[in-house]
Design a protein that fits this description.
The structure holds 2 protein chains of 2 kinds.
Chain A (H helix, E strand, L loop, with lengths): L1 H32 L4 H6 L8 H11 L5 H14 L1 E5 L2 E5 L14 H36 L4 H15 L2 H15 L16 H34 L3 H8 L4 H29 L3 H6 L5 H10 L3 H29 L1 H5 L1
Antiparallel strand pairs in A: 1-2
Helix pairs in contact in A: 1-4, 1-13, 5-6, 5-8, 5-10, 6-8, 7-8, 8-10, 9-10, 10-13, 12-13
Chain B lengths: L6 E3 L16 E12 L2 E13 L4 E5 L6 H9 L7 E9 L2 E2 L5 H7 L4 E4 L3 H4 L6 H10 L6 H14 L5 H4 L9 H13 L5 E5 L7 H18 L2 E6 L2 H7 L2 E6 L2 E7 H6 L4 H8 L59 E2 L5 H12 L4
Parallel strand pairs in B: 1-5, 4-9, 4-10, 7-8, 8-9
Antiparallel strand pairs in B: 2-3, 2-5, 5-6, 10-11, 11-12
Helix pairs in contact in B: 4-5, 4-7, 5-7, 7-8
The chains are: A mainly alpha, B alpha/beta.
């Protein structure tokens, strides 16, 4: 078990390294291969009015003509140890992990990301709890009453759930519950949980439900399919043959087994969401990573995009690691192979 | 008698209702089990009667789809779903099960009647240790602390011949070999000292060398615990080892029911002859080919008219007997008999002249 965890951990670190290489290549190598000169790259870091000499100077300063490994080394050092930029007379230190400074706001990217991470985490965690509880429960009940009115109704709603995009259900929810009924704030309000937990939850109810609706629908369908398959397994018949009460058979023997693939998907979904729930955050004007990403992309704000990409990749790798370890805890067969 | 929505109808014979309590430990009377499917009504078991005493062993033999496993699952009350209809009576230790509530049957399950399944790997939960699964079976019927149940599980594993039971109890099923898994399954089924043990193809998934060990184990344990045993198999060799009585099933009905000795010495039904002829034997020349029964098992939705075996029977319509129209039946009271229209004298003659020399 320990060896297994260590192997996974090493694999995760290697993967993280690969991600930095690929990201570096996308941002700094691909444009060069496509024909951009060092001055072209530098032009993104200076004002539009800069002349050729200023561009040349900037390209030298940022080292765009250095050998690739030197450039990558500088990039990696920035991520791990931070970087120093001399701005004329003074030297400015960009603390690790350094993705650079926003072209627009001139702020270092990382502290901004940390600021917004709270919003995205609040959104993802709350929605995840809702969709897990609701989706799995509905899936189990549907499977146990396959073909019943409940099953057909639930699966009909679930089909709608997976088919409707967030910006539709979100706007619908806003229009009804915020604008018409006035029960909830019409988006844009966020209170950190440390300030006022009740207000935090109240502000997030609509985004949570909207996001959870999409995922709960998918999870209900997955759970239903998994349970239907599992309840036909031989070991379920054995459990019944022991004379166990049906609830024990369903929960301890059936659900436990059917949940394994759900755990995997849950980890990946959560990792993906932590990298920014773009549609939900945009629909409800929540200042999270997703909204930050949209701003970064629309403004061509390269250091911000870089930061969002790296953060997203980090969360997905982390989620994968946690899923792998959880898997070994759940399924004893995994530990040995 | 089983899960939700199983329709229970009283026996069609008015004289049998209200039923008389039988003297045998297990008595099955006119059991009928049908499944509703999209293609039609499947008559999986169609009027089956037999009885079994404590300490005795009954072998139920037949091809796939002959209703053997459906019968055993009926006794265990393990048919689930709205598509199953059961009628007739199953008396287990003076309690009728077909009309009993699902919860009553559940309480008997595992305690009074336990079951061993064909494939021990898929029949055990992969996520729980062997010990945990045996402990669970014990605690389902005994209100004892975990420690006591664990000691019991170790004792049982030891009893069925698992070496180092004290440590192997914490192994997972995938860490056991096939034979050890089946031993563990047997330990699990016997943990509550059941009066009836049903073994559904207990050796089919095992190596030949392990098969004999498992059969020996079942026989030893039966002597020790004094339980009644039903062995379900398509392998006549298995029942030859163990059974006192043999019930040969075809298309959901009993076609021949008698002592094992009689069935091996003087079988009377052409289907039983077919089963015996298709059994490989060590004392036969390598070049002699096995004689399989021609044709395929019948559809249980459209069961052939008359004798269900008539499309495959080499003696059909012999001397003008009504094989295609009249259904032959073994005695409905569960006593020995042969469901065949060929007169008894003629059957014996046929066996002695045509079948015995080729076996």
């Amino acid at each position: 078990m320990v060896a297994y965890v260590l192997r996974r951990l090493v694999a995760a670190v290697v993967l993280l390294f690969v991600v930095t290489v690929v990201t570096f290549a996308i941002f700094f190598l691909v444009p060069r291969v496509a024909g951009a000169t060092a001055e072209d790259l530098a032009s993104r870091y200076v004002g539009k009015t800069a002349g050729p000499e200023q561009l040349k100077e900037m390209a030298d300063k940022l080292g765009f003509d250095d050998p690739l490994y030197v450039q990558y080394g500088r990039f990696a050092k920035g991520l791990v140890a931070g970087a120093d930029f001399s701005t004329g007379p003074t030297v400015e230190h960009c603390p690790a992990p350094c993705f650079g400074y926003s072209f627009i706001t001139q702020n270092p990217v990382w502290p901004d990301l940390v600021d917004r991470l709270g919003v995205t985490m609040s959104l993802a965690a709350g929605a995840a709890i809702i969709w897990l509880v609701v989706g799995v429960s509905i899936g189990v009940l549907s499977a146990l009453r396959k073909g019943s009115i409940f099953d057909r109704g639930a699966m009909g709603v679930a089909l709608a759930g997976v088919s409707l995009p967030i910006f539709f259900t979100g706007l619908l929810a806003l229009s009804i519950f915020a604008y018409n009924l006035g029960w909830f704030p019409p988006g844009g309000s966020y209170t950190p949980i440390t300030e006022n937990p009740a207000q935090w939850a109240y502000d997030l109810i609509l985004p949570w439900t909207t996001l959870a609706f999409l995922y709960a629908a998918a999870y209900a369908r997955l759970t239903r399919a998994g349970m239907l398959e599992t309840m036909n397994e031989d070991f379920i018949r054995t459990a019944r043959a022991k004379g166990l009460v049906e609830r024990t058979v369903v929960v301890k023997h059936g659900l436990r087994y059917a949940l394994t693939p759900i755990v995997t998907i849950f980890g990946l979904d959560l990792g993906l969401l932590l990298g920014g729930a773009i549609l939900t955050e945009s629909t409800f004007s929540l200042p999270g990573i997703g909204k930050y990403a949209v701003e970064a992309v629309t403004n061509n704000d390269l250091p911000k995009v870089l930061g969002v990409v790296m953060l997203g990749a980090f969360f997905i790798i982390l989620a994968n690691l946690i899923v792998d370890i959880t898997y070994a805890v759940i399924d004893p067969r995994v530990r040995l192979s | 008698m089983s899960g939700d929505g199983v329709v229970v109808t009283p026996s069609s014979d008015p004289a049998a209702w209200p039923p008389r309590v039988p003297t045998a430990f297990l008595e099955v009377r006119d059991l009928r089990v049908t499944f509703r499917t999209d293609d039609g009504l499947v008559k999986a078991v169609d009027g089956l009667s037999f009885s079994l005493d404590r300490g005795a062993t009954l072998g139920i033999v037949g091809e796939s789809g002959s209703g053997k496993s459906v019968t055993s699952l009926s006794i265990m009350g393990l048919h689930k779903g709205q598509s199953v209809t059961m009628s007739g009576e199953i008396w287990l230790d003076s309690q009728e099960l077909v009309s009993a509530s699902p919860d009553q049957v559940r309480r008997l399950r595992g305690r009074k009647a336990a079951m061993i399944f064909q494939d021990p790997l898929s029949s055990m939960h992969p996520f729980y240790t062997v010990g945990a699964q045996i402990i669970e079976a014990y605690q389902a019927h005994h209100d004892v602390p975990a420690k006591v149940a664990r000691r019991r599980a170790i004792d049982m594993l030891d009893r069925v011949g698992i070496p180092q039971a004290r440590t192997r109890v914490d192994d997972y099923p995938h860490q056991f070999s096939g034979g050890m898994r089946q031993r563990a399954m047997i330990a699990m089924s016997l943990v509550n000292n059941p009066d009836l043990l049903i073994a559904d193809e207990p050796t089919t998934a095992l190596d030949v060398t392990v098969q004999a060990q498992i059969l020996d184990l079942i026989r030893d344990l039966q002597e020790e615990f004094g339980s009644a045993v039903i062995i379900i198999t398509h392998d006549l060799g298995v029942v030859a080892e163990l059974a006192n009585d043999i019930l040969v099933m075809y298309a959901g009905r009993a076609v021949e029911h008698d002592t094992a000795d009689k069935i091996f010495r003087q079988p009377e039904h052409p289907y039983t002859w077919g089963l015996l002829s298709s059994m490989p034997r060590m004392d036969r020349g390598v070049r002699d080919r096995l004689k399989p029964i021609t044709g395929t098992p019948p559809s249980l939705i459209n069961v052939p008219s008359g004798c269900p075996f008539h499309p495959r029977c080499p003696y059909v319509d012999r001397n003008g007997i009504p094989c295609r129209t009249v259904v032959p039946r073994v005695p409905t009271d569960g006593s020995p008999g042969v469901a065949c229209h060929i007169p008894e004298k003629e059957r014996r003659q046929l066996f002695d002249d045509e079948i015995l020399p080729t076996l």
